[in-house]
TrEMBL record:
The name this protein goes by in its record: Transposase
UniProt-listed SUPFAM superfamilies: Homeodomain-like, Ribonuclease H-like
BP terms from Gene Ontology: DNA integration
Lineage: Bacteria, Bacillati, Bacillota, Bacilli, Bacillales
Ranges of biased composition (kind: Polar residues): 414-425
Residue ranges of the region described as Disordered: 380-425
Source organism: Thermobacillus composti (strain DSM 18247 / JCM 13945 / KWC4)
Domain called Integrase catalytic: residue spans: 129-321
Pfam families found in the cross-reference section: HTH_28
Composition bias, Low complexity: 380-390
GO MF terms, alphabetically ordered: nucleic acid binding
Amino acid sequence: MTKSELKRVMVLEKWIDGRLAEQDVARILGISIRQAYRLKAKYRHGGAQAIAHGNRGRKPAHTLADSLKQRVMLLYQERYFGSNATHFAELLAEHENIHLSVSSVRRILLEGGLRPARLRRRPKAHRPRPRKPQAGMLWQIDASPYAWLEDRGPMLTLHGIIDDATGEVVAATFRPTETLEGYVTVMIEGLRRKGVPLALYSDQHSIFHPPKGKPTLEQELAGEPPSLSTFGQALADLGITHIEALSPQAKGRIERLWQTFQDRLVIELRLRNVCTMEEANRVLPELIAKHNRQFAVAPQNAEPAYRPLPETPLEHIFARRQYRRISGGQTFSWKGKCYMPKPVPGVPRWEAKSVVEVRVGMDGQVWLWDQGRAWPCVETQASQTPAPTTAKKEAAPASPRKPAANHPWRKPFSSKQLQRSTASG
């Protein structure tokens, strides 16, 4: 019996012996007088055991069956290992038709020793930044290298963009490493789906900002613009304000996204038996749509802040830009190869030895950029590498050695030598 039940037995004994009145019993036990008479009758009929709770020692009617608990633990060990309690409960309802609360799933895993008790770390003091009021006011872009395919495939890097106002994943793609091509792919996909945002938040990676991009004090005083990377030049052409984060907490929205993906996306890829990067990119849109349905929120202002796309194709904007000199044969070189603009009727030839802008797309296609228009270029026959010959090459003549510093040719003329040369002249 519990302490409160023993107290009831002692008070009822004093009442039966006449040492307490019914009003005193009701006041001491904190019950009504009618309830006190009920307890007295129950005590006289069944003794002290009748005062104990009737469900003590009895299995609750709403408890989970042991067979169900064993099945849940077996499913976690065989298929869903590594998932947290919330995600595991969702997967059970989606794939196994087992509907349990998150607390029940967590309790089953803890009782079976399958999940350790979560240790709560002391939170750090970071001032939370409120969300932007409109969708399209700020995008956050980043990449996360992780074992997304576990031991079934190679290590991959997930590139992604999230909208700050809604938490919606705008675009994402897998690449072997963090590359410019991966960022350009997600950026072009997001621009085509939504439009041009007002600002972009990123880290200080050299893809977004070259190491020597910040101008010196002399360059600032001279009015020279800072040098931009390929990605930075594209953002400037689109009119997107680029903001660099000084710490991971500054772009915490997308950092929290990586934690969610590393906890959930790995399990989803495992259930679909994805083993290659191509398969992962094929199922990724379905998983991103599922994530957005569950975690995206409505913005404060329903009117989006996106701007329309420019007339220039995005492949021409997000391209590597170099400057080359046109030869007399209307050709220019790029990475050891010779290219020529495709002839177009009615278009004059480029002036020989003039400097032109060359843009190379992420797929290797080359264009000659002139006055806001891209001219496709083709590789000429001159850039083909000749077949190697087995004939022995003649030794090149030795280059003349540079005279030493004390050589008579390099000594300054004396006054007598100057007078002699003047007289002879």
